[in-house]
Amino acid sequence: MLELREVDVAVGKRKILSNINMVVKPRELHVVLGPNGSGKTSLLNAVMGIKPYEVIKGSIIFEGSDITQEPPHVKARKGVVVAYQIPPPIKGLVAGRFAEELMRRFNVESSYAEVLSEVLEVRDLLSKYLFDKMSGGEKKRLETFLTLLTKPKVALLDEPDSGVDVESLNRMSEALKVALSKGTSMVLVTHSLHMLRLLRDHITSVHVLYGGTVVHSGLYDEVVPSIERYGFSGALTQLARMG
Ligand SMILES: Nc1ncnc2c1ncn2[C@@H]1O[C@H](COP(=O)(O)OP(=O)(O)O)[C@@H](O)[C@H]1O
Ligand SMILES: [Mg+2]
Asked: What are 123-157's pLDDT values in tens digits?
């Protein structure tokens, strides 16, 4: 459904990612792991078409058509959404009003919104301005809620776990499972081994990003325990040895 073909990404003249290939089918959960600065955020933003990240080579195919150079709002309308690593506060816009507007535009039934809101415990956050005066964990729960609420075809999630406590990680994982069961595919960037463990049975593939390229893609059991044990560079040596 979403396919990246030999994609290179640059910011200005600087190339950040090279030769990224990925095929995401309906209801699949793809995980991207990699050390800080390896290009995870750049990858998600480039897929979405957010400046200053630019696809300078290769193509992004969505449901059979080339969307490489389409602007973010066009992609969003087609059902591709991204959740930011650090959502910016938007004063003057009440979170609940925004959620209602999204539900109206995307024709979301209120039972689905109820379930998500329950699982992510965002009810108290909906009366506040968007991401204003919220803790890191609250921001991430609300961001995940708003991202999944529209039942996107593909959700690109950038570290929904960052700054989130264990209780919220459990809720977050539960919410992702709910959305997967409703037909949303995901590309999930995370550093949380706890979250990966909770999602293990749902994970299609784990892609290891290192120095701007995917150095390994494999199943959870092949990749994650090795990274947990040896760290990124150590795991890559191990994986290379295994061929
Ligand atoms: N807006 C930007 N302008 C210039 N360089 C950037 C920008 N965003 C990211 N980079 C660079 O791209 C590389 C990858 O960054 P990023 O995608 O944020 O990595 P990650 O999310 O894996 O930590 C880093 O070297 C970073 O400095
Ligand atoms: Mg990042």
From this structure: 999 999 999 999 988 999 999 999 999 999 999 99
Ligand 1 atom 17: residue of nearest CA: 39
Number of domains in the chain: 1
The protein residue whose alpha carbon is closest to atom 4 in ligand 1 is 11
Domain that holds residue 72: 2-242
> What CATH number is given to the structural domain containing 107?
3.40.50.300
pLDDT of 87 reads 80
Q: Which residues line ligand 1 (CB under 6 A)?
A: 11, 16, 34, 36-42, 52
Taking the complete model, does pTM exceed 0.85, yes or no? yes
- Ligand whose nearest atom lies closest to the CA of 85: 2
Strands (E) in the chain, as ranges, are: 2-11, 14-24, 29-33, 53-62, 65-66, 80-83, 90-94, 129-130, 154-158, 185-189, 203-210, 213-218
